[in-house]
């Protein structure tokens, strides 16, 4: 079912049982329609999983369904087919990008998921947020089967997506500590900036530096934190080294405990979203969780939990 043409005929008014006979009611799949806390799932690249969750939260679409579509279309970004990852490449049906959009559907629903001012169907953030918007416009979350059918007019496709969605929900492992609503909002904002270029002193979608990104993320949920990484590190109590890190916590790095030169936001223990350095984009990357451990030429200095979250 991979990379079939999708969404090319607009929304269809179909009998309510058109898919039910093929795949059963949604409740039988084990897929939850609610948005839970951040999770990790074997087989889904962390950066894709973070985007599935952020886009799902924004459009009230189950993240596991987005991941299921991503799996069927392009193996959640891991399919080597050029139409999945190569800018401008399309398959025999004319679909391209990790969520395999036709140009016509893209023109109607495209979302700038990473805020870089471009609408690029080969960009994972743009593609995943657009898929969530399209599903929402097609009836999700209340009519999730109908929405998936609108994405690709095949009952077998719907069944395959729901099978993967149920598997992902069943195998999802919750993080060690849940995110509060405020932290989840800040993290969703930060993840939505993936792909935005690094800009020294930047604090908007034109570009971010590391501290500008986390400041903007917390400002989006009404919490003010200082501007620089050193000020951010000094402004809040440091978490005891044994404290499990939670989504939205801030982690700091530098040459010494008195010189915090870099900050990131925890996605899950050992993974953060950050604006690394000139010449890169906002992205997720791994970090050590033991205070004093080396991180490149710097060391991990510790973490804070912004007040109010």
Proportion in helices: 25-40%
**CATH class bucket of the largest domain:** Mainly Alpha
Low-confidence stretches: 3-34
Terminus-to-terminus distance: 43 Å
Structural class: alpha+beta
Number of strands: 10
Given the C-alpha coordinates, what overall shape results? elongated
CATH fold group of the largest domain:
Lysozyme
Number of helices: 11
CATH second-level architecture of the largest domain: Orthogonal Bundle
Total count of domains: 2
Report the radius of gyration as a whole number of Å.
20 Å
In what range is the share of β-strand residues? 5-15%
Major beta sheet, strand line-up? 8-7-6-5-10-9
Largest sheet: 6 strands, antiparallel
What are its keywords?
309 residues; alpha+beta; Lysozyme; endopeptidase fold (from Nostoc punctiforme); 2 domains; six-stranded antiparallel beta sheet; 11 helices; disordered N terminus
Task: Characterize the structure shown.
By secondary structure, the chain is an alpha+beta fold. It folds into 2 domains: 155 residues, Orthogonal Bundle (Lysozyme); 124 residues, endopeptidase domain like (from Nostoc punctiforme) (endopeptidase fold (from Nostoc punctiforme)). The chain is built from 11 helices and 10 strands. The chain has a 6-stranded antiparallel sheet with strand order 8-7-6-5-10-9. Strands 1-2 form a two-stranded antiparallel ribbon. The longest helix is centred in the middle third of the chain and has 17 residues. It is elongated, with a radius of gyration of 20 Å. The N and C termini lie far apart (43 Å).
Task: Give a nutshell description of this structure.
This protein is α+β, with helices and mostly antiparallel strands and 309 residues long. It has two domains: 20-174, Lysozyme (Orthogonal Bundle), CATH 1.10.530.10; 181-304, Alpha-Beta Complex (endopeptidase fold (from Nostoc punctiforme)).
């Amino acid at each position: 079912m991979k990379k079939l043409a999708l969404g090319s005929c607009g929304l269809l008014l179909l009998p309510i049982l058109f898919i039910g006979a093929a795949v059963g009611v949604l409740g039988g799949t084990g897929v939850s329609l609610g948005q839970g806390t951040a999770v990790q799932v074997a087989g889904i690249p962390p950066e894709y999983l973070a985007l599935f969750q952020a886009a799902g939260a924004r459009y009230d679409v189950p993240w596991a369904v987005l991941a299921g579509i991503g799996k069927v279309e392009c193996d959640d970004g891991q399919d080597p087919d050029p139409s999945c990852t190569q800018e401008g490449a399309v398959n025999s049906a004319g679909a391209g990008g990790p969520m395999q959009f036709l140009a016509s559907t893209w023109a109607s629903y495209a979302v700038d998921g990473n805020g870089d001012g471009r609408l690029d169907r080969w960009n994972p953030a743009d593609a995943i947020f657009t898929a969530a918007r399209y599903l929402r416009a097609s009836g999700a979350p209340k009519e999730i089967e109908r929405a998936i059918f609108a994405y690709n007019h095949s009952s077998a496709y719907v069944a395959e997506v729901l099978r993967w969605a149920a598997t992902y929900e069943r195998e999802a492992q919750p993080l060690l500590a849940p995110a509060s609503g405020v932290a989840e909002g800040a993290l969703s904002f930060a993840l939505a900036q993936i792909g935005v270029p690094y800009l020294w002193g930047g604090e908007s979608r034109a570009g971010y530096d590391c501290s500008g990104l986390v400041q903007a993320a917390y400002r989006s949920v009404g919490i003010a934190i200082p501007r620089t990484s050193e000020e951010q590190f000094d402004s809040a109590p440091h978490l005891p080294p044994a404290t499990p890190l939670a989504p939205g916590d801030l982690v700091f790095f530098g040459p010494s405990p008195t010189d915090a030169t870099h900050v990131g936001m925890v996605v899950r223990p050992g993974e953060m979203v950050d604006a690394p350095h000139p010449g890169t984009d906002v992205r997720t990357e791994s970090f050590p969780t033991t205070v004093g451990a080396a991180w490149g030429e710097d060391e991990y200095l510790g973490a804070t939990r912004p007040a109010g979250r």
